[in-house]
Amino acid sequence: MFAYWGKILRVNLTNGTVKEEHFGEEFAKKWLGTRGFGIYYLLKEMDATVDPLSPENKIIYATGPLTGTTAPTGGRYMVITKSPLTGYIAMANSGGFFGAELKFAGWDAIIVEGASDHPVYLYINDESVELRDASHLWGKTSTETEEVLKEEIGDKRIRVALIGPAGENLVRFAAVMNDEHRAAGRGGVGAVMGSKKLKAIVVRGHKRVEVADRAKFTSVVKEKTDKLRNDPTAGGGLPKYGTAVLVNIINQNGLYPTRNFQYSQFEYAEEQSGEAMAAKYLIRNKPCYACPIGCGRVNKLPTTGVTEGPEYESIWALGAHNGINDLASIIEANHWADEYGMDTISLGGTLATAMELYEKGLLKQEDLGEEAPPFRWGNTEVLHYYIEKIAKREGFGDKLAEGGYRLAEMYGHTEYFMGVKKQELPAYDPRGAEGHGLGYATNNRGGCHIKQYMISPEILGYPYKMDPHDIGDEKVKMVILFQDLTALIDAAGLCVFTTFGLGADDYRDMLNAALGWDLSTEEYLKIGERIWNAERLFNLRAGLDPLKEDTLPKRLLEEPVRNGPNKGHVVRLHLMLPKYYKFRGWTEDGKITEEKMKELGIGEL
Ligand code: SF4
Questions:
Q1: Tens of pLDDT along 362-408?
Q2: Distance (Å, rounded) from C-alpha 324 to C-alpha 373?
Q3: Candidate of 497, 500, 502 to mutate for ligand 1, largest count of ligand atoms within 8 Å of Cβ
Q4: 95 close to ligand 1 (CB < 6 Angstrom)
């Protein structure tokens, strides 16, 4: 087998054992990598109804076949587990260098099960694997933890995936951080690590990933890299302004959710745009492993000094979503969210829920305590004050640490929670891109944009421009295609930003050259479909009620947009959802049929 080692590391934290397991080509061809491997093991080995924060939950860190190769953006890994935020599947991926290093160490994936009774970290140095005490690291931030580990191990080139205090304290939207500022952010995967008392995974590898035909692979990679470099977004906007290049574009198109989606345009958007950030704070770009795009930002502030980020989503979540316009405060808040280890989208969404509860008089100052800053739109003090409080679950921070849905539920008003399946929505108002709304509603991990980025066709024109308010068959089929294609790209170990410039055939070319296989584009997309359906199967087993939960917040279905180019629009989900189920080959109530499971070969799981 090429591009894989065929090796999985299984770690049991309850009894402190580590062992090596193997897989063959048949398995690889069926599940490809990352999300595919993760969902296979969860379905096969775990009861989907387990408590996500109990030792019975498993957490899997998996690479793809192109992770650690020279394929453009080939450095991704994925964290797969049952989410403490949604109660359904979580698959959060991250770039940086950790994924590639894991591959260089000779492992395709790590399965962690059980729970330790004291803090530990896993140290992998090629074949040598050991669990070490991490009591001295407990309570430390991301940067502090990495620094101590580098010193202790005596190797500055180790790569670390870790949790900060938010993960330790089981904040339901805690992230797994790697390379200090890269996050496997969504779904609370960091809280699962925290529940297992696993502070970090440290990796150092010295191997090279072998591909089937080195010369062919090199030439295919060059061709695809050139395509990306010549694309106006992948080779232009993203390197120049980072993902924040989207702020002005999305705001101008009337999709920039403001004050908890009460408005769809933000009057101060320009002041928090990628252009503004580049002019004021940017020092340089920081690409992940093997990435020709380099969307990562390194900024400098007088307060925090040099830091990385924020991404478009974080700027919005900590900015317009809360009516906040001060870019320096947003950058600083993003820095601390990384240090404490939490997902900035859910953090911002939870704060915005609190803001609206406060605005409506449902949340009162006496609930917060006298010294706490009030949840007034635009109050940057809220960012400064609550991030640490949430991470440490202190005072009202303890309630916020439960996420926006549970917070709104405590006050009896879940209609002010802007999320899907208990996960906070990202930075696009779907009333201005209705296919994107269908994508949100049907996403296996709840409120999420990245697993079917319909903003591409509906707003940016990739692979071609679609009317954002068209809800016909073609649009619904495009949502399905984007979901399956993203599953494929993820499973391969690549970054989804490569879709700015590359199409399904390009991924086929790279995979075939690396693996020595001869699969068609359709066969690869079938792998994506298999993964999507398997994740859906997990959710159904975990108790998903599709007709109730494949939905959007009432506001987006019933309150027409107040201003801007989408004025008067809502998302007509009820017209798209039945078609979605039909085109997926599912039942009318959103369940997977026996035939579909048989067709995809997931029936036996
Ligand atoms: S495009 Fe950005 S996030 Fe994706 S691999 Fe490159 S630098 Fe990392």
A1: 999 999 999 999 999 999 999 999 999 999 999 999 999 999 999 99
A2: 14
A3: 497
A4: yes
pLDDT one-digit tens code per residue, 66-75: 999 999 999 9
User: Which residue owns the Cα nearest ligand 1 atom 4?
Assistant: 495
User: Which is nearest to 507 in space by CA: 240, 187, 177, 220?
Assistant: 220
Q: How many Å apart are CA 208 and CA 574, to the nearest integer? A: 50
Instruction: Give distance in angstroms: CA of 234 to centre of ligand 1.
Output: 10
What is the sign, positive or negative, of the torsion defined by CA atoms of 355, 359, 365, 371?
positive
**Dihedral sign (CA 275, 260, 342, 99):** negative
Do 549 and 504 meet the contact criterion of CB atoms below 8 Å apart?
A: no
Say if pTM beats, i.e. exceeds, 0.90.
yes
Per-residue pLDDT tens for 535-592? 999 999 999 999 999 999 999 999 999 989 999 999 999 999 999 999 999 999 999 9
Whether 291 lines ligand 1, by a CB cut-off of 6 Å, is yes
Contact call for residues 561 and 568 (beta carbons, < 8 A): yes
For residues 490 and 499, the answer to whether their CB atoms sit within 8 Å is no
| Cα distance between the two ends of the chain | 24
234 lines ligand 1 (CB under 6 A): no
Å from CA of 235 to ligand 1 middle: 12
Residue 31, token pair as written in the block: 């599940």
- Cα–Cα dist 424/333, whole Å: 18
Characterize 415-440 residue by residue with b for buried, 16 or more Cβ atoms within 10 angstroms of its Cβ, and e for exposed: ebbbbbbbbbbbbbbbbbbbbbbbbb
- Tokens 């296979």, residue located: 40
Indicate if ligand 1 lies below 6 Å from the C-beta of 183.
no
Question: Which tokens go with 474?
Answer: 């073609």
Q: How far is the CA of 293 from the centre of ligand 1 (A)?
A: 6
- DSSP codes joined into one string, 184-196: E-GGGHHHHHHHT
Ligand 1 and 93: CB distance under 6 A: no
Decide if 327 contacts 276 (C-beta within 8 A): yes
Handedness of CA 573, 579, 584, 585 (dihedral sign): positive
Ligand 1 centre and the CA of 282: distance in Å? 17
Residue with CA nearest ligand 1 atom 8: 288
